Amino acid sequence: METMSEGPLAGLKIVDASSMVAGPMSTQILADQGAEVIKLEPPGVGDLCRFIGAMHGGISHYFCVYNRNKKSLVLDLKSDQGRELLERLLQDADAFVHNLRPDAAAKLGLDSDTLLQKYPGLICAALTGFGDRGPYAGRRVYDPLIQAASGIAATQGSANEPSLVRQLICDKVAGLYLSQALTSALLVKERTGKGQALDTSLLDTSLAFAFAEVMGDRIFVEPCELQPDLSVIYKPWRTADGTLAVVMLSDTEFQGWCRAVGCESLVDDERFANPAARFTHWQALRDECETCVASLSTDQIMQRLVEADVPAAPVNTPEQVLENDQVLANEVLCSVPQPGAGDVRHVRPPVRFGQKFAGGVKAAPQLGEDSVEILKGLGFESSEIENFIDQGITQTT
User: Fold this and answer.
1) Which of 61, 82, 261, 296 could form a Cys-Cys staple with 292, CB 3.0–4.6 A?
2) Is 238 strand, coil or helix?
3) How far is it, in rounded angstroms, from Cα 205 to Cα 176?
């Protein structure tokens, strides 16, 4: 697949002072689309995410994924001189992104009100855990806590035993919402020349993302019919050699399923006459079909379901995903050399522009890899940069 030499956001400059997953994911999306993203990291160990997850060659898989296509500049923002360097950096920046807690941002002079007074054309994006007001504002937070607070955990597992989603779903949802908001604000800036403040939180974005599923019948203020438990209806089926996910909502899909697994008699069973009836008697449906499903291989059932136009997919292991024919046909996977860690797998930017991927994939930077280059670009001489290094204001790889 041909790639674009420049993404649609080429020429834009984003300064990213966020850490962990949510903020870095939002700017990684912009970097994938061609923006110059300068990642600010504190001296010492840098972003804590460098050390969380599967480790190889001194770097984690999370950091590799969510900080690709970026440059790394080490700055001690707790020092006056570090903040002065940041101000030089922001003079021609289009956006500044951070996940500092509200009190910390204000103490450092990095709150949106202060920054917009100095840089009226700057987009100032602040991402917090619970928001910038209310009793939880300023609390330290991680993804599982937002899953709990937003109601997502309560809708997983069973009513008596709620469960957390293994994936960092709240972090990544926040990253997606914030990247979209940044793009909208960049469009406004392009049209008007004006910056603005963007404020969101993991709690707000998670509520927005999962509201329909979490609230269900509570969406309606007045009493209504209860929604079916989709976790029961979507529960995968055990085959003779694996596991299969099937969705049979329409009557034709249900009929195709019955023929595929050898349970044709259920087509005329009044308990399963329509979607509402099937939802009511779903456990009975599973009891009737499980033995038949377990006697057939995944490939056998899949072939029959595809022929009957019934939506289905095998439950792939990570290894099977890498070898999946459709994944390979989409050419969405690639690998790039990561210093110290060898080749690292990535998913290309998932949206094509004119049948082309937004841009190439460059490995996540080493800590301070671009410090000297960026500071020279701000007009500092080598001797001045060496002085910054000696003072611990910045560092290089």
Assistant:
1) 261
2) strand
3) 9
- Range in 4-13, 237-246, 380-389 the model is least confident about: 4-13
Q: Tell me 5's DSSP state.
A: S
Q: Report which of 366, 363, 369 is spatially closest to residue 334, judged by C-alpha positions.
A: 363
| Extents of the domains making up the chain | 13-212+350-390, 237-314
Asked whether residue 206 carries a pLDDT value surpassing 90, the answer given is yes
Rg (CA), the chain: 25
Mean of pLDDT values over 318-324: 97
Burial 148-157 (b: 16+ CB within 10 A, else e): ebbbbbebee
pLDDT grade, residue 177 (50/70/90)? Answer: very high
Residue 290: count of CB within 10 angstroms of its CB: 13
Distance CA 169, CA 147 (A): 8
Q: Confidence band (pLDDT; 50, 70, 90) for 4?
A: very low
pLDDT of residue 391: 96
DSSP 277-333: HHHHTHHHHHHHHHHHHHTS-HHHHHHHHHHTT--EEE---HHHHHH-HHHHHHT-E
The DSSP bridge partners found for residue 352 are 357
How far, in Å, CA of 49 to CA of 61, rounded? 9
pLDDT band at residue 32 using 50, 70 and 90 as cut-offs:
very high
What is the spatial distance between Cα 14 and Cα 190, in angstroms, rounded to a whole number?
A: 14
pLDDT over threshold 90, residue 156: no
Is it the case that residue 3 has pLDDT exceeding 50?
A: no
Work out the average pLDDT over 215-238.
88
Section 221-250 average pLDDT: 91
How does strand 55-56 pair with strand 36-41? unpaired
Whether domain 237-314 has CATH 3.20.20.140: the reply is: no
Query: CB burial class (10 A; 0-12, 13-18, 19+) of residue 52?
Result: middle
Mention every residue, 6+ apart, whose C-beta is less than 8 A from residue 37: 14, 16, 27, 28, 30, 31, 69, 70, 71
Contact 156, 166 (CB under 8 A): no
* 13-212+350-390 topology per CATH: Rossmann fold (3.40.50)
Report d(CA 79, CA 381) in Å as an integer.
Answer: 20
What's 44's DSSP letter?
A: T
- Two structure tokens written together for 4: 């674009």
